[in-house]
Write a structure and sequence with these properties.
Chain lengths: 65, 699
């Protein structure tokens, strides 16, 4: 049983993460990772990052016909 | 041995695809099973991807996986985010696939299933995918620069300006015409109007949730939103059944036009987190779900295609829109075969997130193949219904008549059997008062989808729910295009206005926001209103205008791509972009010429204006219709001017490019390539950018 859970976890975890990445759910985590990579402190809170990201995303063509 | 097996497998795929295409093209007599369409399209896509895109990657572009992409060099966790190629494929596909590949093929089905299907498959493989792929490549090599910036740097300053203005013009026409599709789907339909209206408070609710309660938790907020949207689709039936509520949500075309204009203004001027972004999240999930369901439905039900391969309307007398197969089939189906608008996405977010240059093939070429497949499915859904019903839904009242009996008589006379009772029964079974004269593609696609879905789940009983689910799905993501496009248009106007008066460019200055929002909404609102009051149905004049505009932008993108490839000394393979450019210029210029000057008043804007003017002069127009007719004349002339301006802009760009190409070929001048210099990637070869946790090579 435990093995089954582990196997399904291995299968579903990447799928779940892909879904989070696709819809933008994990955007803040990715931002934190990038800041860490650059040995930089995270500059924005989750809320501030969310608002700033929306401003940028919707100022250029993001949805097509 | 393994190579031999692989080669044999690919030969088998090619033979199967050719056989399926042959079956589609040569089939006569009994109805054809839609499985042939799926096999033909998928086999062609596989072969095109395996051979043609590989050839472009290796010979023309020489994609280099050792070169660091902008996502690696400028990784900031905001715009430049290294992203797994499957996830980015999903992102890119969600951005490029809008209502176009659903509406265009549905309208072009009036020629029969064959011309549209062949154009969808061949156009995508040789033109659309090539454009998306090469523009994506060019933008990756330039740190994610936009099409306008690349046109300015690589072609000329004037070229850049033309591209920028062309984008704005296309945006205005696009928004006007997609709004018209929504109006034609919602008018006199309390169920559909209620459902769509309710998506606004649902979006606001999600917006507040994401802003204040759980910032950025998109998945859980979207799950709540999707559940609520499904609920309001069902609740719409109760509204339609209640006389008082139904009256409140039964709106005329003109009333819906003003409602959409007010909505567009609000979405542009309000903070983006409140309405625009949450609606976009909702729409993305529902769009993905509906497209997968349509594909699954077609595969499970395998409906028969009842439309003939070619109809009598290839002669240009089509009721949905007038004009012969050449050039109008290729103009009507823009998205799905080649869409210039995609070049804005390929030079927008995607190049900043791509992990390796090599992924550009899968994402640029592959995502467009998938969009083409969506177009083929829309064609199947439209052609799976009885042709008589298809024409009754999509023809304007001025051509077929406004009562079921009159429409049935006209359409039967064309050779497509239909009774008035069939239309009345069909309307009742999907919960509508009437399905007649709903040009625009959305309702007929919804009927097609509802028939396919209800044969899988629910039968006749759920036909109404499926129909309204399909209408809601189309209208929802058209509104997403509408509000996102309006906002982008607002920024473009502010940027252009800022050149004249600086404060206007400040995107946080309230009077500037209000004025620029009013300008962009007023511009597309005018086209929308013009379409709503047009007795010929609006789609007849506006959809071709949109197709021309979109294909012209594609020509702009391909001219930019050709110039860059020439500078890269890839002359031997330059036909890869040059041939589609020549084809696009030919069809758009022919269509522009015919839309302006053709003697048939249903095709030529000017001749329609002249016919109306002659009627006024002869005193045939009653006094109470005089002002309306004069406005109609003005609108036709305006459309002619818009077409002239669009065509002239592209000619300017092409002439600029021809001078540039001549100078390049004769080596009279050195033209520097504005590529970012080569930097070797630091990522290991097996780095896939798997997003979860810490990516490899992270810490």
């Amino acid at each position: 049983m435990a093995r089954l859970v582990a196997i399904s976890g291995r299968v579903f975890q990447p799928l779940w993460q892909a879904l989070r990445d696709w819809c933008g759910d994990s955007a803040y985590d990715r931002y934190l990772q990038a800041m860490r990579r650059q040995r930089d402190a995270a500059l924005l809170s989750r809320k501030a990052f969310y608002l700033e990201q929306l401003q940028r995303r919707y100022s250029r063509p993001s949805r097509c016909c | 041995m393994q190579n031999l097996l692989k080669t044999l497998a690919w030969i088998a795929v090619a033979v199967l695809g050719a056989a399926a295409l042959g079956a589609i093209a040569l089939h006569r007599g009994e109805a054809l099973n839609s499985t042939w369409f799926v096999i033909a399209a998928v086999c062609c896509y596989l072969v095109a991807y395996r051979l043609y895109s590989a050839f472009i990657s290796a010979k023309l572009l020489a994609l280099d996986d050792t070169r660091a992409t902008p996502a690696e060099r400028r990784d900031d966790g905001r715009d430049f985010v290294p992203t797994n190629k499957w996830v980015l494929f999903g992102h890119h596909f969600a951005a490029i696939a809008g209502p176009g590949p659903l509406v265009g093929p549905t309208l072009a089905a009036q020629f029969g299933y064959l011309p549209g299907t062949l154009w969808l498959v061949a156009g995508a493989a040789f033109a659309g995918c090539v454009q998306d792929f090469i523009i994506l490549f060019c933008s990756i090599r330039r740190d994610g620069k936009s099409l306008g910036e690349m046109a300015r740097e690589e072609v000329s300053r004037r070229g850049g300006f033309v591209a920028q203005v062309a984008v704005l013009a296309i945006l205005v026409i696009l928004l006007g015409v997609v709004a018209l599709v929504v109006v034609n789907a919602l008018k006199s339909s309390p169920w559909a109007t209620f459902t769509l209206a309710m998506t606004i408070p649902i979006a606001i609710l999600i917006g507040l949730y994401l802003r204040y309660l759980r910032p950025g938790r998109v998945l859980e907020a979207s799950a709540i939103g999707v559940a609520l949207v499904v609920f309001v689709v069902v609740a719409g039936q109760w509204v339609a059944d209640s006389p008082s509520w139904a009256a409140a949500f039964t709106l005329s075309g003109v009333a819906l036009c003003f409602a959409l204009v007010a909505y567009g203004f609000a979405a542009s001027a309000l903070p983006v987190w409140l309405l625009l972004a949450p609606r976009d999240y909702l729409s993305a999930f529902i769009k993905a779900g509906a497209i997968f369901s349509l594909a699954a439905g077609i595969l499970v039900v395998r409906p028969h295609v009842l439309m003939p391969p070619l109809t009598r309307f290839i002669d240009g007398s089509g009721p949905v829109f007038a004009g012969k197969i050449f050039p109008f089939c290729f103009i009507t189906i823009a998205c799905g075969a080649i869409s210039g608008f995609h070049s804005l996405i390929s030079s927008g977010t995607t190049p900043k997130m791509i992990l390796r240059e090599g992924h550009a093939r899968f994402i640029g070429y592959g995502a467009m193949l998938l969009e083409s497949f969506v177009g083929v499915m829309a064609m199947v859904a439209a052609c799976a219904m009885t042709p008589g019903i298809y024409f009754a839904i999509n023809s304007p009242a001025a051509i077929v008549g406004s009562t079921p009996a009159a429409a049935a008589a006209t359409i039967s006379n064309w050779g497509y059997q239909l009774t008035g009772q069939t239309m009345t029964d069909l309307a009742r079974s999907v919960g509508e008062q009437t399905l007649l004269n709903r040009a625009g593609g959305a309702p007929s696609l919804a009927v097609g989808m509802a028939q396919i879905f209800s044969s899988t789940i629910g039968g006749e009983r759920l036909l109404g729910i499926w129909y309204h689910f399909a209408i809601m799905f189309e209208a929802l993501f058209i509104l997403t295009v509408l509000d996102a496009g309006t906002r982008v248009g607002r920024f473009m106007i502010q940027e252009l206005g800022g050149r004249v008066w600086k404060p206007f460019a400040r995107t946080s200055w309230t009077p500037g926001i209000l004025l620029s929002s009013a300008l962009i909404v007023g511009a597309w609102g005018y086209f929308l209103y013009q379409g709503v009051v047009d007795p010929l149905g609006g789609i007849n004049s506006l959809w071709p205008l949109f197709g021309i505009a979109n294909q012209l932008l594609a020509a702009v993108a391909l001219v930019v791509a050709t110039t860059i490839l020439m500078k890269m000394d890839r002359l031997r393979w330059i036909w890869v972009t040059l041939v589609p450019t020549a084809w696009l210029v030919t069809i758009t210029m022919t269509a522009s010429y015919q839309k302006i000057f053709d003697a048939n008043p249903r095709i030529g804007f000017l001749s329609y204006a002249n016919v109306l003017a002659a009627q006024i002069a002869a005193g045939k127009i009653p006094a109470d219709k005089l002002a309306e007719t004069q406005r109609l004349i003005f609108n036709q002339r305006l459309d002619a001017v818009v077409t002239v301006v669009l065509a002239a802009m592209v000619l300017v760009l092409i002439i600029e490019a021809l001078f540039q190409w001549h100078a390049l070929l004769t080596r009279r001048r050195e033209h520097p390539l504005h590529e970012v210099p080569y930097v070797a990637t630091q990522w290991p070869a097996d780095f896939t950018g798997v997003a979860h946790g810490t990516a490899q090579g992270d810490d």
